[in-house]
Amino acid sequence: MVSIIRRPFGVEQRPDDRFRQVTFTVFNTRLHEKEPFETIEEGLVRMYNCGPTVYNRQHIGNYRSFLFADTLRRWLEYLGYDVRQVMNITDVGHLLDDADEGEDKIEAQARREKLDPKAISEAYTAKFLEDIGALGFLPAMVYPRATDHIPEMLDIIDGLLEKGYAYQVDGNVYYDVTKFARYGELSGNRVEDLEAGARVEVRDDKRHAADFALWKEDPLHIMKWKTHLGEHGFPGWHIECSAMARKHLGDRIDVHTGGEDNIFPHHECEIAQSEAFTGETFARYWMHAKFLQVDGGKMAKSLGNVYTLDDVSERGFSMRALRYCLIRGHYRQPLNFTWEILESSAAALSKLDDLVARLRRAAGEQRESTDTERAALDRMRAGFEEGMNDDLNVPEAVAALFKYRGDIEKDGVGREAASAALAFLERANGVLGVLELESEDLSTDVEAQIEARESARTAKDWAEADRIRDELLALGIVLEDTPDGVLWKRAR
Q1: Which residues pair with 145 in a beta bridge?
Q2: What is the DSSP string of 187-255?
Q3: Dihedral of the CA atoms 114, 118, 123, 124 (nearest 10)?
Q4: Largest interatomic CA distance in the chain
Q5: Count H helices, E strands: the chain?
Q6: What angle separates helix 105-113 from helix 117-134, to the nearest 10 degrees?
Q7: Are 100 and 212 a contacting pair, CB within 8 Å?
Q8: In what order do the strands lie in the sheet with 225-227?
Q9: Rounded distance between C-alpha atoms, residue 414 and residue 10, angstroms
Q10: C-alpha to C-alpha distance for 221 and 227, rounded to whole angstroms
């Protein structure tokens, strides 16, 4: 069954925020340059994200790409758009090495685990949905499964055959890339340069080495469908996304995202088959995230560095820290992961927690705000928005928050500015999803200990003050003495 989850808006909107599309620029892979973001229909974004192939547990590298899509969706909603987000689930047809030959990834895993392929896909789909919930993703409008969209795929395939873009040989249907003049525009590959055996598998039944499969005939394939094309057929990987995007978003979409490994052949083939079938531009913007590196290199099972969320939890880190770690860099730049970097990400979040604690304390006091403090708040808001509007420059946006923390440490903050800053951080967190903004009450006993420590400090009984501080630390309460009084926070 198709799993549909209706979602609320990710952030509160203000009337003056609606459709500020002229300020947002994105890097369009198809044009190889930045351009202003403009939608097909005012106020509405149709966005398709390439999701997981559910043959195993997704690793943190996968989640870097998925979190990029989540951050993009959140920023678009911050700007006031209604975002119709679709993220697919590939549960058939994705062959090993992304080629037209070899074993289906899900069937290969089913053979290893001695299970039915459907059991494999269902189990790992459930785990994927559990993981993205733990990481704080906003749920997509729909998570369509490829196996639920066979009729939609056949509809496109029949149309491509009728228009002469595809041909059938012994039950196999291939797309003739020489018929589509723009093939290679996204990736920069030219048909004449795709030599036989270099990037694609050579088959005698193909007209050209670069032609790709829309439908495969294989009696040995476990997941197969009896159709007018043959008795034992199953879809090619590329046709699945074209069919699911068209089913749920229409012939034309605004944004299509994925990892950099999707650019060729997957997204290149999506463009060719969708645009040949509809005669329309398939996606206005193509956006791709770079790979996540681990310890400065590639992830590999042989190196033991293909980490899942369970590995992160077992090391004692929160999913909030991992989310921040994976979004902290610009999506178009390589990002390195080490346990030390994750530790520093957790420490960075503690500083932002400290910012929230300072603002909450100041908002409850009576001191009026100064023009200097209001200007610091304006700089934080402007810096955050300028960063995000510049092709989702999260590092620049987050730097504005840390700069503001330094400003109020230096100059303090009055009640009005503190309240306004907390309100803005709530909106900013609708984009980042990493701040802890809910106030947390202490137990009566802990409050009494903090008051006792303050009394000991006043009496200059430093030994007693230190003893109470250490006792609180053992309970996970960290105290910080400031000119404005004592601040507390939970140890991370």
Answers
A1: 89
A2: T---GGGS-TTTSS---TT-SSTT-EEEEEE-TT-SS-EEETTEEEEEE-HHHHHHHHHHHHH-S-EEE
A3: 100
A4: 92
A5: 14, 17
A6: 100
A7: yes
A8: 166-169, 172-175, 212-217, 230-235, 225-227
A9: 29
A10: 15
Neighbour tally for 353: CB within 10 Å: 17
| Alpha carbons 237 and 51: distance in angstroms, whole number | 12
Q: Which pLDDT does position 4 carry in this prediction?
A: 27
Round to whole Å and give the CA distance between 157 and 155. Answer: 6
Tell me how far apart the alpha carbons of residues 6 and 238 are, in angstroms, rounded to a whole number. Answer: 26
Cis bond leading into 265, ω under 30°? yes
Burial class (CB in 10 A: 0-12, 13-18, 19+), 222: middle
Q: To the nearest whole percent, how much of the chain has pLDDT over 70?
A: 89
Q: What is the pTM of this model?
A: 0.86
End-to-end Cα spacing for the chain: 40
What token pair was written down for 191?
């048909």
Number of CB atoms found within 10 A of residue 276's CB? 22
- What pLDDT, on a 0 to 100 scale, did the predictor assign at position 130? 98
Q: What is the DSSP string of 286-310?
A: EEEEPPEEETTB---GGGT----HH
pLDDT at site 150: 98
Other CB atoms within 10 A of residue 39 CB: 18
Q: Can you state the percent helix, strand and coil of the chain, rounding each to 5?
A: 50, 20, 35
Average pLDDT over residues 405-428: 94
Q: Is 442 or 325 the better-scoring residue by pLDDT? A: 325
| Banded model confidence at residue 297, pLDDT cuts 50, 70, 90 | very high
Query: In terms of DSSP bridges, do strands 292-294 and 335-337 run parallel, antiparallel, or are they unpaired?
Result: parallel
Mean of per-residue pLDDT scores for the chain? 90
User: So what's the pLDDT on residue 2?
Assistant: 27
| Between 490 and 309, residue with greater pLDDT | 309
CA 91 to chain centre: 20
pLDDT at residue 485, as a whole number? 66
pLDDT digits (tens, 9 = 90+) for 189-201: 988 887 555 544 5
Here the tokens at position 476 are 């996970």
Q: What is the dihedral of CA 339, 440, 400, 83, to 10 degrees?
A: 90
- The CB density around residue 61, as the number of other CB atoms within 10 Å, is 21
Amino acid sitting at position 158: D
DSSP assignment letter at 85: E
Kindly report which listed range (19-33, 65-79, 173-187, 416-430) carries the lowest average pLDDT score.
Answer: 19-33
